Prior knowledge:
This protein is mainly alpha-helical. It has helices spanning 6-11, 17-23, 34-44, 49-62, 67-72, 75-80, 85-99, 104-108, 112-119, 127-136, 149-159, 165-172, 179-190. The relative contact order is 0.15.
Amino acid sequence: MSAIDPYDHLRADPRLGPLVEEHGEIGLEPASDPFERLVVSIVNQQLSTASAAAIRDRLFERYEVTPRGLLDADEAGLRETGLSAQKVRYVRNVAEHFADGVTLADFEAMDDEAVVADLTEITGVGVWTAKMFLIFVLAREDVFPVEDLGIRRGMEAVCDAELSREEMRTRAEVWKPYRSFASRYLWRAVD
């Protein structure tokens, strides 16, 4: 971890500083259950927040969200929670990967690129989902998920301009090594 405080670092940026002041210190906390959090990311893919929350609630109420619990669940029942047939396959692909004995410690020992490479080998897990895993499961401090619509909207709001993804990446360089923290504030900018 860098000796510079992430909040002081981000406060120094005239675009992001006001968000840090407005929202206070928004931290990064590692998730206790990497499988569960990855399933939540898959549920959230390409859905509104409200729709994803409703499906997630039904899924967690009806099933034990563990690799074995979701592998044993029948497809029709999973579909009744609101998962599409495609997302049922994706959730089961993740369950198979974790049922093979993958642990949080395995991911903690990998650098960011290795985590993304490992997870994107699972059909249904793309770069966006892998980056959400880095931020919300592993609490990695320097991830910039420009693939996320909320991040792109947040960048446009704080920069007061339409930007290409490459321009966003370039502007985000100033937030290194705390781009995950910056991302949390960008999401707040458009919430």
